[in-house]
Design a protein that fits this description.
Number of strands: 9
Shape: globular
Structural class: alpha/beta
Order of helices and strands: HHHHHEHEHEHEHEEEHEEHH
Number of domains: 1
Radius of gyration: 20 Å
Oligomer: single chain
Distance between the termini: 52 Å
């Protein structure tokens, strides 16, 4: 009941306000985060310190403050996403090189669109189906609240996006083979199992990376396209696309994962405040014999896909 009241009485009505008004609300929220309720400050600061050891303590703290400012803007834009119009989305979220996806469509290539939680991913989820000629799919896990999961999913799908569960994506994506699909994958979550992860150097530390994008690309033979979402100004974003491979089954184990993770790392280093520093990205322990694990993973990959 509380979730319904919060949604219909507070959150949804707020979403109809102009963004400039929502930014006023979130400015005060930003001040609260700085001085009264420092949301996950220990996690944020720890992540930033390990990722940028070359920076001074003063620079680390400055990054935290700038991150809170960006984070509160993203919250405002997330609320706005519940009711933002197609016209406004097209104005605020622009693809610089849409011809790349058009060419893949004409070549009858299905696509994995891969990146991370960098800048405004919610506007992309909602607008993807109107940005590209492929049918849009997004892979994710259900929210813990059934009410919020239903409402958020409906809002995300209102312009044609189809949100599917990570556990049954094969059945859906392999169905209707005549439909050309573009599947959105945000690959920077912390994996559930350190022994099933791909381990690599990322932001100055050994990091467990989800292997899902590479596995899906090889299973389904989809092109892999990395996208960078860059903030032009407050509330306005531009997306840049780059093909990582059109022949995933010709790549070596780890090539695709290394490519999209390094591409994301480059974007983070260029604009470090715009990544989601408040999630526990490095909570998995490094396996004791990493070289042995990598050898076993490589052998299993080749046995399955080569």
């Amino acid at each position: 009941m509380g979730a319904k009241i919060g949604y219909y009485i507070f959150i949804l009505p707020l979403s109809y306000l102009p963004l400039r008004v929502l930014y006023i609300f979130t400015y005060f929220f930003y001040l609260i985060l700085l001085s009264i309720v420092p949301y996950r400050k220990k996690i944020i600061l720890g992540n930033i310190e390990r990722s940028f050891p070359e920076m001074s303590t003063k620079e680390h703290k400055k990054l935290v403050r700038k991150y809170y400012r960006h984070f509160t803007d993203i919250l405002a834009e997330g609320v706005k996403n519940l009711s933002i119009s197609e016209k406004e989305l097209r104005k605020r979220f622009v693809v610089n090189n849409p011809e790349l996806m058009q060419q893949l469509f004409e070549e009858k290539r299905n696509v994995l669109l891969v990146s991370g939680h960098f800048n405004n991913w919610e506007w992309l989820i909602t607008s993807q189906n109107i940005l590209f000629p492929h049918q849009a799919y997004g892979i994710g896990m259900p929210l813990s609240s059934q009410f919020w999961h239903k409402k958020v999913t409906a809002r995300r799908e209102r312009l044609g996006m189809r949100v599917i569960h990570a556990k049954n994506y094969r059945d859906i994506l392999l169905g209707n083979p005549d439909e050309l699909k573009a599947v959105l994958v945000l690959s920077d979550q912390s994996p559930g199992n350190s022994l099933k992860s791909y381990w690599m150097d990322f932001l100055n530390q050994q990091t467990a990376v989800l292997f899902g994008t590479e596995m899906m690309a090889n299973e389904l033979d989809y092109s892999v396209v990395f996208f960078a979402t860059r903030k032009v100004k407050r509330g306005h974003y531009q997306m840049e696309l780059k093909v990582l491979t059109n022949e995933p089954r010709s790549t070596n184990w780890g090539d695709i994962t290394e490519a999209h993770t390094k591409a994301l790392e480059k974007e983070i280093r260029n604009n470090p405040t715009q990544w989601l520093w408040s999630h526990r990205r490095w909570k998995r322990e490094l396996p004791q014999d990493l070289n042995k694990l990598k050898t076993e993973q490589n052998e299993k990959f080749n046995a399955r896909y080569r």
